[in-house]
């Protein structure tokens, strides 16, 4: 099989893509970013997937991380994207638009899988991977195996939903200092710690690069580390997922 796959990470503010070598996990090209259309309706986002494909002059399979609960290719929620995505078969829509096989999974699951499979870290026990961005994404692993679509950013917390209390968009909207935001995120991690007793928490997503600015306020007793692949994990994980799925389909 050709080891190159186009990986795409759809986020609330940007759609990022690169061609990835799915055997080594390395990016084969520079990253290309398109602003997420507003409103982010299925038709408009599908048109950007086509633009991404054309930018890379790509004809092979595509892997796509999507910011919602995705079951067998179908979006089941839509918190940070247009509500019309609910019950849309994202795989069929993108495959038809791009005229190639597109494989879709939750964005945090994609990023977490990349981090777990490509970075030399201890995978034993329960590992909780969280993405910090417009929402909070989660990928839960037990001995290296993913429990997909955990959506822990949507846990009931503090009388509302966790990501509406502790996502990075909340820090930006309320103009919180790193300390104020980190204390909120720490409360959320303490709650997760109580529920899952993870052996390790890994923080990924756009804002994990500021780990040094906020981690000093964490009190949660589980070890918390920043992700190594940072913002490219979603692209790489989506490409690797598609590579495996495409191979088993042939
Ligand atoms: C969505 C998740 C997604 C996360 C990060 C949440 O609002 O429900 O599916 O993983 O945002 O994008």
Describe, in plain words, how this protein is organized in 3D:
The radius of gyration is 17 Å and the shape is globular. Helix 1 (42-55) packs across helix 2. It has two domains: 4-109 and 232-249, 2-Layer Sandwich (Nucleotidyltransferase, domain 5); 122-227, 2-Layer Sandwich (Nucleotidyltransferase, domain 5). 45% of the residues are buried. The longest helix has 19 residues, at 178-196. Helices cover 34% and strands 26% of the residues. A hairpin with a 3-residue loop joins strand 1 (4-10) and strand 2 (14-21). It starts with a strand and ends with a helix. By secondary structure, it is of the alpha/beta class. It is built from eight helices and 15 strands. Bound molecules: beta-D-glucopyranose (BGC). Beta-D-glucopyranose binds next to helix 3. Beta-D-glucopyranose is lined by residues 67-69, 77, 79-80, 106-108, 131, 133, 135, 137, 151, 153-154, 163.
What features would you highlight for this structure?
250 residues; alpha/beta; Nucleotidyltransferase, domain 5; 5-stranded mixed beta sheet; binds beta-D-glucopyranose
Structure at a glance:
The protein is an alpha/beta fold. 34% of the residues lie in helices and 26% in strands.
């Amino acid at each position: 099989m050709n080891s190159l796959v186009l990986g795409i990470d759809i986020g609330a503010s940007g759609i990022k893509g690169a061609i990835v070598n799915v055997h080594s996990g390395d990016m084969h090209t520079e990253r290309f970013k398109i602003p997420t259309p507003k409103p982010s309706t299925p038709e408009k986002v599908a048109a950007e997937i086509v633009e991404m494909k054309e930018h890379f002059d790509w004809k092979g399979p595509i892997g796509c991380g999507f910011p919602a609960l995705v079951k067998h290719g179908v979006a089941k929620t839509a918190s940070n994207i247009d509500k019309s995505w609910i019950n849309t078969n994202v795989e069929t829509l993108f495959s038809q638009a791009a005229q190639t096989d597109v494989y879709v999974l939750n964005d945090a699951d994609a990023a977490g899988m990349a981090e777990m499979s490509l970075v030399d870290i201890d995978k034993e026990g329960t590992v909780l991977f969280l993405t910090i961005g417009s929402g909070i994404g989660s990928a839960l692993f037990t001995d290296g195996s993913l429990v997909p679509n955990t959506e822990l950013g949507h846990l009931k917390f503090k009388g509302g939903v966790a990501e509406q209390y502790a996502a990075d968009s909340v820090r930006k909207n309320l103009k919180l200092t790193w300390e104020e935001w980190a204390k909120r995120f720490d409360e959320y991690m303490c709650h997760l710690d109580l529920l899952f007793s993870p052996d390790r928490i890994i923080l990924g997503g756009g804002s994990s690069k500021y780990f040094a600015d906020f981690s000093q306020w964490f009190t949660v007793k589980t070890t918390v580390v920043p992700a190594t692949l940072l913002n490219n994990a979603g692209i790489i994980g989506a490409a690797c997922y598609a590579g495996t799925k495409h191979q088993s389909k042939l």
